Amino acid sequence: MPRSTKSIRKADRMFDRLPDLKRVLVIVECGNLHAAAERLNITQPALTRSVKLLEEHLGAKLFLRHPRGVKLTQFGEHIVNHTKHILRECQVAETELGTLLQGEAGTLKMAAAPVWVSYLLPPAIVAAQKRYPAMQIHLLSMDYADAIPRLRNGDLDVFCGGFASEEMLPSFLTRKRFFQAQMHVISRQDHPILQESPGDLEKLLDYPWLSYQNDWGYLDLAMEHIEARTGRRKSASVFCETIIAALIMIQEGDYLSYLPDNFMRIVPGFNLRTVAVDMPGDTFHSGIIFRRSLEKNHAFQTVAATVDDMIKKKMDPGTQGFSL
């Protein structure tokens, strides 16, 4: 049932009750009122009354009660996501204002795809830390699908990795493309597949395949092309979520894999080859998605500029770099 106009007006003023909203976040983290009250150092009846008054103020229920604790309603989930986002924007603003008085400080919460985490970001974070030692940087390994919701609700500030350029983002997020990655069948340098005709896709099914990340992702793209031409496809013999382990197995075994070509340029120490095959080349963009409020954050600028320099050295000339 639609909420009344009066309720909507109350929801518009929800941040008049910011302390109560912060308590709601603690309840969500703890999963029940008893644990949340202990963390907040207040009595459970006082916390229960705080939630009830907030629900009355907003004109809608935030929680569903059950024997083992509480669960957010759909309205409650929206309130929590907006609260996290607003609180994070406030923190970023405080950091920016503090920078004017005391130099760069605060927290930068980043997530990135494995190649970024392992090779591109570490030198960039070291460079930023040297220039801004008071800045605390958190780095998580995460894929695009998991990072986007956390960017929306304020749990993350930055995601680095592959993304869909056409996907709409909230107005407080923006994206910058660093390079375009081309997918290729990959093998070791002396793999027997390299002696086969590029048009003979059947031969690709004679060898074991390694799936990096999961069977739905990169490998399924390759198998869709092969099946369209041959009527056959193949499942992976090995599934691997660690890029170094995947590349070692490709180099040491008879495995084929379907990977972005930039892996061979960014990740050092491997003698791998792209296999010439007659099938469409899949591409995707790789770069950063970040909160617009970070555009004046010097530590973030240093991270981005350092990665940009690294990519220009490793990639072909003409790749698009970073600029704010």
From TrEMBL:
Domain HTH lysR-type: 16-73
Alphabetized UniProt keyword annotations: DNA-binding, Transcription, Transcription regulation
SUPFAM superfamilies in alphabetical order: Periplasmic binding protein-like II (SSF53850), Winged helix' DNA-binding domain (SSF46785)
Pfam assignment, any one: HTH_1
One GO term describing the cellular component: cytosol
Source organism superkingdom: Bacteria
Any one GO molecular function term: DNA-binding transcription factor activity
PANTHER family: HTH-TYPE TRANSCRIPTIONAL REGULATOR YBHD, NITROGEN ASSIMILATION TRANSCRIPTIONAL ACTIVATOR-RELATED
Entry's family note: Belongs to the LysR transcriptional regulatory family.
Protein name listed in UniProt: HTH lysR-type domain-containing protein
Originating organism: Phyllobacterium phragmitis
